[in-house]
What does this fold into?
Amino acid sequence: MTESRLIGPVRVVGAGLLGTSVALGLRSRGIEVILADASPTHVAIAVDLGAGRVAAPGDAPQLIVVAVPPDVTASVVAAELAEFPDAIVTDVASVKAGILDALRGAGADVSRYIGSHPLAGRERGGPLAARADLFAGRPWVVAAHDAITYQRAGAIDDLILDLGATLVEMTPSEHDRGVALISHVPQVVASIMARRFIDAPNAALGLTGQGVRDVTRIAASDPDLWVQILGANATPVRDILLAYRDDLDRFIDALADPTAPGARRRVAEELAGGNTGVERLPGKHGTDKRFTIVVVMVEDRPGELARLLAEVGEIGVNLEDLRLEHSPGRQVGLAEISVLPEAADRLTNELAERGWRIAG
It folds into this structure.
């Protein structure tokens, strides 16, 4: 068992995906975890999973992690601050400035509160979806403010490091503007694009490939949760969407008459701008390395993908990323394997020698 930086006990309020994952990660380091939730069923499941014990009178937590829906986060944090006057409290909601403002407005003791946000999650929610390693290698923002001392805030840093996440310091407003750009607006764009499929002909949907799945994957997210998130971060999201609408208008104008002078140049510039933007996204481990994609055809039989991945390992090439495309009705899938450019030719040749069909 790896030694923990925290002393404990840690009280986790909210036994959903994030809360139970926090609890499981801390329990794996031997930290005592106290579980609380408005749903007795969620608590019972989390306890059965080994995430901690049920809250009891006389508990004296060192740290409290509030993992409840955004629209009740401020009120729950305020209640925890009042009930446990010796504890440091954090929350893991995806919006930070509004919660801090609400706590200050309610007269809560924010000298013992600092908001945080792990940028990690899964398509499924609830305690059964929780994982002890959910936060490993993921960014976890600490939204610092002047009312809390560095010494008190150190418990949050210890929590983040114990769970294997990467600590990122931002102000609450910097955080909210940042997640509006990299999370909230993409959710809106993906959802609106996916709405186009409602009345689309079945013949068109039958052409679905990996591109449209990439663009719309997050459209399957929980609408109730996103109504809360977008309402709490409405101003920065709206600002970005207005600028995005301007970009779309320019593109639409150029397509109105593709033969007009300058129209094709304008389309090319907008598309090239997308290339430039994508190049700025950090890759694996936060680096800006670009990878080469080797596309391998995989028969639709049990164990074939596992065999491919095992043979990539035998060849001695590090797999940087993997994407699988498998359209309905096809007896073969396409595994897009991302590797360093200098390894691509060797991987292609050795996979071909082993009988794999290389598609690109």
User: Anything to note?
Assistant: The first strand starts at residue 10 and ends at 13. The mean pLDDT is 91. Residues 172-195 form the longest helix (24 residues).
